[in-house]
Each structure stands twice: as structure tokens, then as C-alpha cells.
Amino acid sequence: MSSPAVPLLMLSLLLAPLAQAQDGDPVLPYRPSVASPAQLPAPGQLEFEVGGLSTKTGDTRRTSLPYTFKLSFTPEWGLLLEGEGYVRARDDTGRRETGVGDTTVVLKRAFVLDSATALGLELGWKVPTAKDAIGSGKSDVALNGIFSRDLGPVHMDANLNATRLGAADPGTGTVQTGWAASFSTPVSARWGATAELSGTRLRGAPATAQLLLAATYSPTPRLAIDIGMARGLTGASPDWSLFSGLVVPLGKLW
């Protein structure tokens, strides 16, 4: 399976001219961690995040191109459109499926307490745009609470969420809880590092947990590129994941 870094490197070269203007607002990456920050991007600036993700779980493989469009109406309110532009999956029998993934619309409210601390609340609705062999075929509704704080040079994002699953296996619950704690810090003027623990829990199903490590590179404040990996910490978690992606502004709408 090819590395997701190759197409992302090509895409970053194509989108880099959009980020060269220095008179615009800097981007606010939500990648590469599972946890989201409480803060929103600059109002009126449409930001685009795209990545490549390869995951192995036992004998199954899954490769996808996740994306996110982010737009803030005010410093407190914003909207996110998330999904997978392409998915290629292979199950343990060798059967392969390709297609687009599900799409999620997220309404976000930020509560900025001071220059170092913020709270956030996200309400998301997943639309089953993927075929059943790739997605669940049902809608999900999720509520995510966020606590973000600067601890000296380290930025922390802690998330706690609950998702009402539209499709659940027999004998399992319909509400899945999730948690994530991400810590990021600059290591030079352009490079940064991120470490994160995250997991999920569902009644009647084994819990999942993973450790994520990533490096970020920002040649300008308006372009961020990341690469990293995640390792499963429980038997129910994916064995490993490799990912790469970028964040770039598409334009100033107002």
C-alpha cells in the first residue's frame, strides 16, 4: 500500500501559492490530532484541511482522504464540513470496496475565557453518504465538549464526547463515548510536535485506545503540513495508522 504522504506532498505544492500572501490571517490547524481545539479560525476565512490516512487492523486495510472545510462567522460561532473524499477498504477475506465516505456537518461554539484558556462545544450530524460496505448506512449525532489551555510552551486540547449511533451491533449500546487529550509544542520556528492519547467506549463492545505522535511543519503562518503515526493500545484498536496532511486558507469571504 502506497504511503499517504506522496499525494499529499503533490497537493501541498499545488495549494502552496494560496498560502504565500503574508497579509492574511494565519491558519488554525485542527489536524493531525483526534482532539479538536476550542478556538475557531479567523472570522470569514475559509480554511481547507486534507489528509491521507492508511490504517491496518488485523488482516483488514483502509486508506482514505479525509477533508475538512472550516468557516467562522464570528469569534464564537463557526461551521465545519467534514468527510472522506475517497475510501479504499479491504476486509479480512480480501474483498475490496472503493467510494466516497460519510459526511459530517458540525456547528461549533467557542467560549474564550482568556488568552490562554478556552472552552468549546460541537454538535455534529453525520450524513450517510457512503455506501453500506464503507460506512454504517445510518445517521449519527454527536456532542463534543472541549477544554483548551496553554501550559507555558505546551498547548493542550482535551475532548470528551458522546455519539448517538444510528446503527449498532446486536448486544451493544447505542451511545458511544470518546475521549482525547492532545499536547503540542513548537520545537523550532517552523517545526512542532504533537502527542495524543485517545479512545472510545461502547457498552457491550471492547474499549479502544491509541497513542498518536506527529510532526508539523509551517513554512508560513498560512500553511501547515503534518506527518505522523498512531498505534493501537488495546486489542479492539487498529494496529497502526499512518497519516499526512495539510491546512491552507482558500480565501477571505468577508
Structure, briefly:
It is built from 1 helix and 13 strands; from the N terminus they run αβββββββββββββ.
Word description of this protein:
This protein is mainly β and 254 residues long. It is 4% helix and 59% strand. It contains 1 helix and 13 strands; from the N terminus they run H-E-E-E-E-E-E-E-E-E-E-E-E-E. Strands 1-2-3-5-6-7-8-9-10-11-12-13 form a 12-stranded antiparallel β-barrel. The protein is globular and about 50 Å long. The model has no long low-confidence stretch (mean pLDDT 92).
List key phrases describing it.
globular; 254 residues; mainly beta; 12-stranded antiparallel beta barrel
What's the structural blueprint in terms of helices and strands?
Elements: H1 5-15, E1 45-57, E2 60-72, E3 77-90, E4 96-99, E5 103-112, E6 117-127, E7 140-151, E8 154-164, E9 175-186, E10 191-202, E11 205-220, E12 223-232, E13 240-252
Antiparallel strand pairs: 1-2, 1-13, 2-3, 3-4, 3-5, 5-6, 6-7, 7-8, 8-9, 9-10, 10-11, 11-12, 12-13
Strand content: over 45%
Kindly report the average pLDDT value.
Answer: 92
**What share of residues is helical?**
under 10%
H and E order: HEEEEEEEEEEEEE
Q: How far from one another are the termini?
A: 42 Å
Q: Give the overall shape, derived from the CA principal axes.
A: globular
Sheet with the most strands: spatial strand order: 1-2-3-5-6-7-8-9-10-11-12-13
Give the helix tally.
1
CA gyration radius, whole angstroms: 18 Å
Task: Give start-end ranges of low-pLDDT stretches.
Answer: none
Q: What structural category do the secondary elements indicate? A: mainly beta
Largest sheet: 12 strands, antiparallel, barrel
The number of E-state strands comes to: 13
